[in-house]
Every structure is written in structure tokens, then in C-alpha cells.
């Protein structure tokens, strides 16, 4: 965004000035997350059940900066379920930062954990994240829970038809049923 603004406004920032703006923005985002972040309804129970069962390994794979991801997970009480070395950021975990839909962060996470992408399942709520999973060869559960009612149908279509989601869930109480459909594929 900052690069686009510089071009649009015909401004030039030094790398130091750019870094300062990025850090300031990140700080504000984290501050807001720490005040207002809430878990998706039902997600904590699903994670707790999965953790107790120990059948699946769990990881977080995000395009956001690692500090932002960690703050979000901690704020909503999910940090217990994800070991720090299983939290990945396309912005900070890769030698060359990238962003979804580039599958690099998913491929990096799979390699780091030691699992094949074909043996994984991603839960994604955005087009870019879903395409990253698809492009990495990871089966996908689309998630439309965070969207307003008028946006859900559009996102269902995007996640299913464009991004190849095996199934789309609206609420985390549907996770077991969705996972059974993914495992049947």
C-alpha cells in the first residue's frame, strides 16, 4: 500500500522512513487486535477437541506479520493449541517475504513440519488464502463465518468454484462433518 501511495502522490521515502511507517501501522493493528479480537464462534471448542484427540497436527499459516499473528492467537486464547514453531508468516517466516495466493508459505510450513501438502487440510476464508492452499496442493475447507449474510453466498461460490474447496462451512460446529467430507476425497 505504501508503495502505491508513494507512486500516486509522487513521493519518495527512504527505506528507514518506510520501515518506520510499517512498524507504526503494525503497532496500531496489534493494539486494536489486543483490545477487540474475538475468536470465531465455536473455534475454541473445535481446537480443544482436536488437541485432546491428538489425531491431527495444527499450524497457523498467514500472510500477516508474525507479531500480528501471534498477538491475534494470544488475544483469542488459541496460543495454547499452536506451538510457536508451528506459526508461519509469509511476511516474516520466509527468506524472501511474499503473500498469499503465492503458495510459498504453505509449502514452507509443510516442509518445516515434515508433512506432504497432500496430507494436509487448510481452512481458509479468503480468495487469496484459498488459492494459496490450492496452489500448494492442500485440500481446502472454505470458511464463510466471518462474512455478512449478503457476502456469504458470493464467497461460498468463490471458495468452492474458483478455489476448489472440498466443502464450505459457515460455523465451526460443522467442522467434523466437513472434515469427514475432506477425508473421503
UniProtKB/TrEMBL annotation:
Domain of life: Eukaryota
Single GO MF annotation: phosphatase activity
Name of protein: HAD-like domain-containing protein
PANTHER family reported for this sequence: CBBY-LIKE PROTEIN (PTHR42896:SF2), XYLULOSE-1,5-BISPHOSPHATE (XUBP) PHOSPHATASE (PTHR42896)
Pfam entry (one): Hydrolase
Amino acid at each position: 500500500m505504501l508503495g502505491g501511495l508513494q507512486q500516486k502522490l509522487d513521493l519518495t521515502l527512504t527505506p528507514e522512513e518506510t520501515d518506520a511507517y510499517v512498524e507504526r501501522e503494525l503497532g496500531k493493528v496489534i493494539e486494536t487486535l489486543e483490545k477487540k479480537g474475538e475468536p470465531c464462534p465455536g473455534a475454541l471448542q473445535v481446537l480443544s477437541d482436536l488437541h485432546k484427540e491428538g489425531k491431527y497436527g495444527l499450524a497457523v499459516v498467514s500472510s500477516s506479520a508474525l507479531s500480528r499473528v501471534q498477538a491475534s492467537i494470544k488475544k483469542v486464547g488459541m496460543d495454547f493449541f499452536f506451538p510457536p514453531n508451528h506459526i508461519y508468516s509469509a511476511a516474516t517466516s520466509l527468506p524472501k517475504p511474499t503473500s498469499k495466493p503465492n503458495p510459498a508459505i504453505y509449502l514452507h510450513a509443510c516442509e518445516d513440519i515434515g508433512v506432504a501438502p497432500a496430507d494436509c487440510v487448510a481452512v481458509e476464508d479468503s480468495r487469496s488464502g484459498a488459492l494459496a492452499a490450492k496452489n500448494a496442493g492442500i485440500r481446502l475447507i472454505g470458511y464463510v463465518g466471518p462474512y455478512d449474510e449478503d457476502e456469504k453466498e458470493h464467497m461460498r461460490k468463490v471458495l468452492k468454484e474458483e478455489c476448489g474447496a472440498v466443502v464450505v462451512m459457515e460455523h465451526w460446529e460443522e467442522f467434523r462433518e466437513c472434515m469427514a467430507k475432506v477425508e473421503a476425497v
